[in-house]
Specification:
Elements lengths: L3 H13 L3 H4 L11 E5 L5 E4 L7 E5 H26 L14 H8 L7 E3 L5 H6 L4 H9 L15 H14 L6 E6 L6 H12 L4 E7 L2 E2 L2 E2 H4 L14 E5 L3 H19 L2 E6 L18 H11 L1 H12 L4 H24 L21 E3 L6 E3 L1
Parallel strand pairs: 4-5, 5-6, 6-10, 9-10
Antiparallel strand pairs: 1-3, 2-9, 7-8, 11-12
Helix pairs in contact: 1-13, 3-4, 3-6, 3-12, 3-13, 4-10, 6-13, 7-8
């Protein structure tokens, strides 16, 4: 028979493991059991042509536990991806977001399902937070039938697409915003600045988010960019630099950015200062252009999960046993999803020509690699 303490811990873990889509409503929910007032560090934000968000943040216990659970699951999922790649079950490129969890989690907890997010290939965490299952994400990486499609493989190409989505939102009169993410390595792309121009010209509800993890592939930001103050590079677009290793600061900044965009003020530029623990991709050891000491320093002093755990303890929002229960449940959930993804069969050849055009487009055929490889719909 289970003790009352174990039953309570199980209830906490179960509550924290609601789906990302259902918990997202916490951003606007009024029915919360208990709120905590948090004073963010004075260096959490730096602004350009706009006011900084308030450093006073009110957050519920449910939100704190949800953010903690989400980051733990995300890291476990990326650790599973790492293992599958090293086992040669994932082939080709694989870009992990280990260390950058606070960006995706903080963003999603400040948004609603009507807001849009578009990013590039380091997208596993965003896909999970937008409602993709762990099984579907891992199956996609494995090339299995249960996989979910996602990501954009052309550096920076998602940014003008995001501006186009924001244009559609304004055209349709929707009170929502589009967040277009790109890295410091893509920040010098001409199409990024073209998107800035169009967004400001038409005052679109577009928020451009630079995930500055300090290295574009193996090149340090100051070796590739003459101006590394990415939040100021919009020129005529106001900007905000954010501590991207603090999930609560990210949440506060994104809420501020959404309100800015949907209130008719036009676009805003966010720079999330973050850090990836691994290399650019799995084929990059990540230690040839930076020291192991630097990586360990960031892990020890700036880890987003450890930072939130410490904050939860300081607020007396949960006990160590409660967080351990969430950690244990996260490991079990990811382990089960990994086995489900591995068990999914590979797609058959007939799937090669699916989900390319909408059926309503009326496209009669699609040519393959050679003219003889023509598929007729």
């Amino acid at each position: 028979m289970l003790s009352s303490q174990k039953i309570n811990l199980a209830k906490v873990a179960a509550k924290a493991f609601a789906s990302p889509l259902s918990v997202r409503t916490f951003a606007s929910s009024a029915a919360v059991a208990r709120n905590f007032n948090i004073e963010l560090h004075k260096d959490s934000f730096e602004s350009y042509k706009c006011e900084v968000p308030s450093l006073e943040v009110s957050v519920s216990k449910d939100d704190l536990l949800h953010m903690y659970k989400s980051m733990v699951v995300m890291r476990r999922m990326e650790m599973a991806s790492d293992g599958l790649y090293k086992a040669k079950l994932i082939r080709g490129f694989c870009h992990l977001c280990t260390g950058q969890e606070a960006v995706a989690v903080g963003m999603e907890t400040a948004l609603t399902a009507q807001d849009n997010i578009i990013t590039a290939y380091r997208c596993h965490g965003f896909t999970y937070m937008r409602g993709g299952s762990i099984t579907s994400i891992l199956a996609e990486l494995l090339g299995r039938r249960a996989g979910i499609s996602g990501g954009n493989g052309i550096v920076g190409a998602q940014v003008p697409l995001g501006a186009g989505i924001a244009f559609a939102q304004k055209y349709l009169g929707q009170k929502a915003a589009t967040f277009s993410l790109y890295g410091d390595g893509a920040s010098n792309q001409g199409q990024v600045f073209e998107a800035y121009n169009m967004a400001k010209l038409w005052d679109l509800p577009a928020v451009f988010v630079c995930e500055n993890n300090r290295y574009g592939m193996g090149t340090a930001a100051n070796r590739s960019s003459a101006n590394t103050s990415y939040f100021k590079r919009g020129d005529y677009i106001p900007g905000l630099k954010v501590n991207g290793m603090d999930v609560v600061a990210v949440r506060q900044a994104v809420a501020y950015a959404k309100e800015w965009a949907v209130s008719g003020k036009g676009p805003l530029l966010l720079e999330m200062e973050t850090y990836r623990y691994g290399g650019h991709s799995m084929s990059d050891p990540g230690t040839t252009y930076r020291t192991r000491e630097e990586i360990q320093h960031m892990r020890s002093n700036n880890d987003p999960i450890t930072g939130l755990k410490q904050r939860i303890f300081e607020l007396d929002a949960a006990t160590e046993d409660e967080l351990k229960a969430i950690d244990k449940a996260a490991r079990a959930e990811v382990d089960q999803a990994t086995e489900e993804a591995k068990a999914s069969p590979e797609p058959d050849v007939s799937q090669l020509f699916t989900q390319i055009y909408q059926k309503s487009a009326g496209v009669p055929f699609l040519r393959g690699r050679e003219p003889e490889e023509t598929h007729y719909y």
